[in-house]
Amino acid sequence: MKFELLKGDITTLEVDIIVNAANSSLLGGGGVDGAIHRAGGPSILKECKEIVDEQGNCPTGEAVMTNAGNLKALKVIHTVGPVWKGGQFKEAQALANCYYNSLKLAEIAEVSSIAFPNISTGVYGYPKQQAAEVAVKTVYGFVFNHVKKVVFVCYDDQNYNIYSSLLFQ
Ligand code: AR6
């Protein structure tokens, strides 16, 4: 297994799967969600809508997979991170579920690489250090069969520095 740390825009990556930090409506939004839909084009939103029509909103901690439109990736996995409410509302479990369920879908798809943004650490307000610890612990604890490379993509310096010390200490 290879774990990589990158700083920048996740939409530019050439990996099999890009993970999106979505909301339960799957209808898009700001932050990385907005960037993925902008770069990927309307086919992603179309498939998100079909999924919601069939299954209803995507619950927190769950993940669904769509096409990747114009992105270089093969697929996008949309997962819904928890809104931070102080830590007493099972936020850590919900965030771990996001990483776990995304990896599970990637394994089912038999892909070999996947890139994650720092789920919930933007608008959803999850403290960055704590979120990174959950992310790294969950990914490191996962048993991989097909996936050979996981990329942690940080957009801001603070997250990048936190991940650097967690991954390379
Ligand atoms: N590439 C990689 N990371 C990015 C990018 C990018 N292009 N843009 C932002 N980030 P956020 P959340 C980082 O707010 O907290 C949306 O409106 C950003 O710096 O995108 O899970 C959804 O629709 C931060 O570290 O997602 C939901 O309503 C991380 O991505 C809500 O925001 C996550 O920030 C989800 O909130």
From TrEMBL:
Membrane-traversing stretches: none
Domain Macro, residue spans: 1-169
Entry coiled-coil feature ranges: none
SUPFAM superfamilies: Macro domain-like
Lineage top rank: taxon: Bacteria
InterPro entries named in the record: Macro_dom (IPR002589), Macro_dom-like (IPR043472)
UniProt protein name: Appr-1-p processing domain-containing protein
Organism encoding this protein: Zhouia amylolytica AD3
Source species taxonomy: Bacteria, Pseudomonadati, Bacteroidota, Flavobacteriia, Flavobacteriales
